[in-house]
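Sample pair:
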Amino acid sequence: MAKIWEKYPGYDLVHFYSKLITHSCFSRISVEGLEHLPKEGAILLAPNHVAAMMDPMLVMLVIEEPVAFGARSDIFANPKIAKKLRWLRIVPIARERNGLSEVAKNYEIFDEVVDCLDHETPFCLYAEGTHRPERGMMPVKKGIFRIAKIACEKLDKPVWMVPMGLDYEDFYEAQGRAAVRIGEPIDIRAEFAKREAAGLGEGEIYRELCQLLREADLSLIGRIPERRHDRKALRCLLALLSLPLFALCAAGSILIWLPHAIILSGMKDKAWSHTVRFVLHMLFPILWPFAIVFERLLRFYRNLIEDFKK
C-alpha cells in the first residue's frame, strides 16, 4: 500500500485542476496569514468544518505542497471508494459513535499519520469530528491532540498545530465570497510540557488544549464584510438589461445547475451544496463560462429581491 506522503503519478495534475474548479465556484477567495505556516517540522492543520468536501478544497488551494487528510471512517466502507480516497491522500479516522472496535483501529492510522508528518507532509484533520453549515464552532474532539502527542513522542522535530478559519459568505449558494485565514501556530510539545509541569491530569490537559484550539479557530472566522444594500434603482436597471444574458447562460449551464438542484432536493444534509457544485464543475469544465455568469447573475437577482423585502 502506498504511503500517503509519497508522490503519486498524476497527483500534481489533479491538484492543479482542483484549484481551478475551486476558484470557479466562488466570486472571490481571500487568503490571510500564509506567513504563519511553519517552515519546518511536523505540521497538523486544524480548520473548522462547515461545508463537507469543499473545506479540503479550500485548504489545498492555499497550501502549495501536497496535504494529507483524515476523514470519517464510514465513507471507506466501499473498497473501490476507499482506494480512490487513499490516492487522494485521505485516511479513515473512526469516531466514538462508530464503536470501540473501529476506534481501536485509529492507533494504526495514527502511526501512519506520524510517518506522514515525519516526511514533511502536512496532515489536516477537522477537529470537531463533523461539519455544520453555521458560523461558529462545535466542541473540539481530542483525537487531533492524541495524534499530536504521539508525534511529539516519536519525532525528533518541532510539532506544530496550525489553526485555520474557513469562512463562507453563503453556505449553500454559488459565487459567494470565501476566505481562508491561517493563525499563529501552536507549539504542541511546549503546550503539553507546560501543563504536565503544572500537575494537570491527562483529561484536563486534553480539555484545555481542545479549548485553546477552538478559541484560536473562532478568532479566524466570521469576518467577511456584509455586502452593500444601496443603489437599488441602478441595480434594477442592470437586472433588466442582463436578463437576455441570464437566459443564454442558464441554457448553456443547464447540465450543472439542474443536476445540482435535483441532487440537493434529495439530500437532508444541505452542507454538501458546494461539494455537489464542485463535482459538476469538474465534470463539465467547458460549461464554466456559462455557469459562472449564470450563478453570479442569479445571486445578483436574489440579493436585489432580498433588499426590496427588507
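The chain has twelve helices and eight strands.
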